[in-house]
Design a protein that fits this description.
This protein has eight helices and eight strands; from the N terminus they run ααααβαββββαβββαα. With 221 residues, the protein is α+β, with helices and mostly antiparallel strands. An eight-stranded antiparallel barrel has the order 1-5-4-3-2-6-7-8. The protein starts with a helix and ends in a 10-residue tail after the last helix.
C-alpha cells in the first residue's frame, strides 16, 4: 500500500476502480486477499444493485473537544455504548477498519482531507467479516486507536462522544453529523461545548493515530 502514498496516479486509479468494482474486489487485487463475497458483490454492482452493507456519500460533521465534568448527560444510563478499535491501513487515501464491540466490522475509505477544511469529506463504507478484518490488520500503519463511544439523541441530532484510551487517554470529543453544510454552519453551540476542532487536521483520527495527542490540546474554547 506504500505506492498509494507516493504515487498520486496510483492512488487515483485505486479510488476509480474501487468506485466501480467495490472495495472487496479492489483490495483483493491490490493486497492479495481473498474475499468469499467478491463474486456476489461484483455481480450486484454489474447488475445495478447495491451490495449489502455498502454506505457511501458525503460525511458532513463538526467536532468539538469537551470536558468530562461539563457533559450534562448521564451517558452510562442514557446513551448507547460501543467499544471501538480503529486501525489504519493507509493514510492517503485514508483506509481504515473498525471493530465495534466485537459485533460489527467495518472498512471505510475517506477522501477530501485538507489542512483548511474538515467539515465535509467523501466516505464509503463496507461491512466485512471478522476473518477479513483480522487479515487486514496485518496491513496496519501507525498506532491503533481505542475509544469508547456514547451515542445519544439530542433534539434532531445524534451526539457521539468519544472517550479515548491508551496513548490517547484523556482526550474526549463530541461529533455531530449534519444533513448539509448550511445546517452544520448554522448550528447553535451550547455553552458547555469546548473548542471547535472541525477544521484542525491534528484532531482527525488518522493524525491521532500517527502523532498522538496534539501539543496544543486543551478542551476549553
Amino acid at each position: 500500500m506504500k505506492a498509494l502514498r507516493t504515487n498520486p496516479l496510483i492512488a487515483k486509479l485505486f479510488i476509480f476502480t474501487a468506485f466501480f468494482l467495490g472495495f472487496s474486489a479492489v483490495l483483493n487485487i491490490w493486497m492479495g486477499t481473498e474475499y468469499i463475497r467478491l463474486s456476489n458483490e461484483y455481480h450486484s454492482l454489474k447488475n445495478g444493485t447495491k451490495p449489502e452493507g455498502e454506505n457511501q456519500g458525503a460525511e458532513i460533521e463538526r467536532k468539538w473537544l469537551v470536558e468530562r465534568d461539563k457533559i450534562p448527560y448521564d451517558l452510562e444510563k442514557k446513551a448507547d455504548k460501543f467499544e471501538i478499535t480503529q486501525t489504519y491501513l493507509n493514510y492517503s487515501p485514508e483506509i481504515r477498519v473498525r471493530n465495534i464491540s466485537d459485533q460489527q466490522y467495518i472498512m471505510a475509505i475517506k477522501t477530501g482531507l485538507t489542512k483548511e477544511q474538515g467539515l465535509t469529506r467523501d466516505e464509503r463504507q463496507y461491512k466485512i467479516t471478522k476473518d477479513e478484518y483480522e487479515h487486514l490488520l496485518s496491513k496496519q500503519e501507525g498506532s491503533t486507536i481505542h475509544k469508547t463511544r456514547y451515542q445519544l439523541k439530542v433534539d434532531d441530532y445524534i451526539y457521539a462522544f468519544d472517550f479515548f484510551h491508551e496513548q490517547l487517554d484523556g482526550l474526549i470529543y463530541l461529533e455531530i453529523e449534519f444533513p448539509n453544510e448550511e445546517e452544520a454552519n448554522s448550528f447553535e453551540t451550547p455553552n458547555w461545548f469546548g473548542r471547535d476542532v472541525t477544521n484542525d487536521i491534528n484532531y482527525k483520527n488518522q493524525k491521532l493515530a500517527q502523532n498522538g495527542i496534539p501539543a496544543d490540546y486543551t478542551p476549553k474554547d
